[in-house]
Amino acid sequence: MDRSDIPSLDDLRAFEATARLGSVRLAADALALTHGAVSRRIAKLSEELGFQLFEKSGRGLKLTTAGETLFLTVNRFFGELRTTVQGLRAAATQDDALVLSCEPSVAMRWLIPRLGGFQAAHPAIALHLSVGGGSIDFARERIDLAIRRLDFAMPETWQVRRLFAEKVGPVMVPDRLADFEEGAYIGLGSRTRPDAWSTWLARHPHRPRPQEIRFYDHHFLMMEAASVGLGVALSPLVLATDDIKRSRLRAPAGFWADGTHYGLIWPGEREPNAKARQLSAWLVAECQKSFS
Predict the structure, then answer these.
(1) What is the pLDDT of residue 83?
(2) Is 3-63 CATH 3.40.50.12280?
């Protein structure tokens, strides 16, 4: 997942504040920006995503259907991130920080909900989370460790520890199970993996095909759409595992290993420090709990 696929966090904050407060003016006050600055950021975000976020309702604004789906994700993400960061900052000084980079969808749907456990086990470590995909400039971005899908070329000097195999499968809310079995469903996909559905269907020819496939710009948008019943998402297991365990989503066809893996990466010209080794061991243990 390329970092350029992720909208600006400033634009997302302007959208989230406006949607949550119900007013551009109130959002501007909360963010210490001008009314015009917030409006421009929302317009820029809408243009980049390719769909409208708000529509006029009388003298005010209301979210579009797509805007509501995005708000569910962004509001939850900022809330969880705010809580996590506040706790981590209180634990240690900036000089003691450990920086972990993680792909955005994995961070939002799998990693962040578990970080409280790491902080409880290692209260002396201030862990800072950075989101990004693909290659990493460890020195420039001051990153200690990175979680990535191992589908890109890496320098021979980098060290990699495999965390879990990538597995994909169709997931849906319980109300969509019958539609899935009858082939009366809409397939949801991510533009970051445009061939995922065709590959999965070729591997599972006995499964009913979707009536159509609709693509979202990011996996986390696709998953939110599936969570509110808009269709059947072809999801990586890592993004769906928690909702499946809570019975919010079902995976009647199981998950198929596509041959790739996620791994923990660090630059090999230096050994990870003690804190990075503790984080590495914790991540390995959490992956074993989730995917073994």
Answers:
(1) 78
(2) no
**Sheet harboring 232-236: ordered strands across?**
126-131, 97-102, 145-149, 256-267, 158-171, 232-236, 186-190, 212-216
Percent helix, strand and coil across the chain, each rounded to 5? Answer: 50, 25, 25
Which residues share a beta bridge with 201? Answer: none
pLDDT tens per residue, range 146-165 = 999 998 889 888 999 999 99
Domain 76-163+261-291, what fold? D-Maltodextrin-Binding Protein; domain 2 (3.40.190)
The model carries a pTM of 0.68
Scan for tokens 């290692």, then name that residue.
Answer: 122
Q: Is the pLDDT of residue 93 over 50?
A: no
Residue 124 tokens read as 């002396």
- Which residues of the chain form CATH 3.40.190.10? 76-163+261-291, 166-259
Alpha-carbon distance of 260 to 150, in angstroms, equals 7
Neighbour tally for 120: CB within 10 Å: 9
Closest CA to 172 of 230, 226, 240: 226
State residue 229 phi and psi, 5-degree precision: 85, 20
Please give the backbone phi and psi of residue 234, each rounded to the nearest 5 degrees, phi first: -85, 100
